[in-house]
Specification:
single chain; about 210 residues; alpha+beta; 2 domains; 3-stranded antiparallel sheet; two-stranded antiparallel ribbon; 9 helices; 7 strands; about 60% helix
């Protein structure tokens, strides 16, 4: 998208429209580098241009990146969710450090074989499912099969922010605690019916 700005021509007193160049969204940038929307955000986070924010753990441009002119945060769009755009100078910077950042990120992943193993196992599991997994279900699957894996590594496997892993992990814990309480509440009632004659047990159910 071409962004413009209006400047005052002091010689005529008129406002002139000046082009600021072609700005792209983070998702559009992903298309340029032939990577997915999740992966591009992980890479830009590794570069230090994005940071995890809020309870959803969304990746957004850092304040410093905005101050340096590498992009803008669109916090109140006319429709949809907030998003970020990368400026021409930001695109030049990303292009300059892209190969190094990707290689560095890959080296970090290869230093511990577990994330690669988990990624391959998850892909195999998803391949035999009839319906796709949501991000929350993927986090729960990782916690079930790799309970000791740090949130940072789970985030790397799923290409999401560590904050989002923490959020879904806490939600999973709360749901399990709720179901455990429900079972404890139902258990005394079942035990009581086991010792009652049939007529009294049926009457007890109706109460």
């Amino acid at each position: 998208m071409i962004y413009t700005a209006e400047t005052l021509d002091r010689s005529t007193g008129d406002l002139k429209e000046v082009s600021l160049g072609n700005w792209v969204t983070v998702t559009e940038l992903a298309h340029l580098y032939n990577v997915g929307p999740k992966q591009i955000r992980v890479i830009l986070h590794h570069m230090g241009l994005l940071q995890s924010e809020g309870r959803h753990g969304w990746y957004r441009l850092t304040r410093r990146a905005v101050e340096q002119g590498f992009g803008k945060r669109i916090n109140r769009p006319k429709s949809g969710y907030p998003f970020d755009v990368i400026s021409p100078s930001g695109q030049v910077l990303i292009d300059q450090v892209w190969q190094e950042a990707v290689a560095d990120l890959q080296q970090e992943r290869c230093s511990d074989p577990r994330p690669a193993e988990a990624r391959a196992t998850l892909i195999a599991f998803k391949a035999v499912r009839l319906s796709p997994l949501t991000t929350q279900e993927e986090v729960c699957w990782m916690k079930d099969h790799y309970p000791d894996m740090p949130h940072e590594q789970i985030a790397s496997v799923l290409e999401i922010s560590p904050g989002l892993v923490s959020r879904y992990t806490n939600k999973r814990r709360e749901q399990r605690a709720y179901h455990a309480r429900q079972k404890e509440t139902a258990a005394p009632d079942k035990a009581l019916k086991a010792y009652l004659p049939d007529d009294e047990a049926n009457q007890h159910e109706r109460l």
